[in-house]
Amino acid sequence: MGKGKKQYAVIGMGRFGSSVAKTLSEMGFDVLAIDASEERTQEISNLVTHAVSADSTDEEALKALGIRNFDVVVVAIGQDIQASILTTLILKEMNLPLIIAKAQNALHGKVLSKIGADKVIFPERDMGTRVAHNLTSPNILDYIELSGDYSIFEMLVPAKMVGRNLIELNLRQKYACNVIAVRRGSKMNISPDPHGRLWEGDVLVIVGERDDLVRLEIAFERHG
């Protein structure tokens, strides 16, 4: 796996875990997907950097995968609460920089927090794609998946956009994304002036297809 950019490991390739892994991969990050099931590992293998079938409750197996070299590990194990807790505990003992763990319920979440998960996620409230965006993009304030491929996200105006207006940016033409509102402080403007200059601290509310939003995000954030 290439050095220089953040590396993510996602353990558990259920609906939530595979959603996080795929979104991170689409955004151009190195992703290691891990699942106890060979079948699930196969399904995700062509969508991520590397996919491995392994028992995440086996400390030696995790060490062999070089898990300690990862910047962020997401424990997205499905129904097996015991495996989720054990895995989180092992990762914590390895002193990983950031451990994100998925909880089934409030009690499970409390246990995960107590044993050292840095952030606990409840998938019914935090969709996998939304989590991936929040993990990688300090400018992405919120991410809401609509029906099908369409999503809405709130983006803090990157440095590259400050002082420019919506006509100059031409996001609809270049990225097939529409700015539906601009928030400035506590005021939300739902019919923004296309000639008005954007200020530092402004928040754009953008709607578009997920792939187009990812392209827009990469263009203005990572290279801005």
Number of strands: 11
What structural class should be given to the helix and strand makeup? alpha/beta
Shape: elongated
The major beta sheet can be summarized as: 6 strands, parallel
Write the element-wise H/E pattern from the N-terminal end onward. Answer: EHEHEHEHEHEHEEHHEEEH
How much beta, percentage-wise?
A: 25-35%
Mean pLDDT: 87
Name the strands of the widest sheet in spatial order.
3-2-1-4-5-6
Percent in helix: 25-40%
Low-pLDDT parts are none
How many helices does DSSP assign? 9
Radius of gyration computed on alpha carbons: 19 Å
Distance between the termini: 25 Å
What layout of secondary structure does this protein have?
Layout: E1 7-11, H1 15-26, E2 30-35, H2 38-44, E3 50-53, H3 59-64, E4 72-75, H4 81-93, E5 98-102, H5 106-114, E6 119-121, H6 128-136, E7 140-145, E8 150-156, H7 166-169, H8 171-175, E9 178-184, E10 187-189, E11 203-209, H9 210-222
Parallel strand pairs: 1-2, 1-4, 2-3, 4-5, 5-6
Antiparallel strand pairs: 7-8, 8-11, 9-10, 9-11
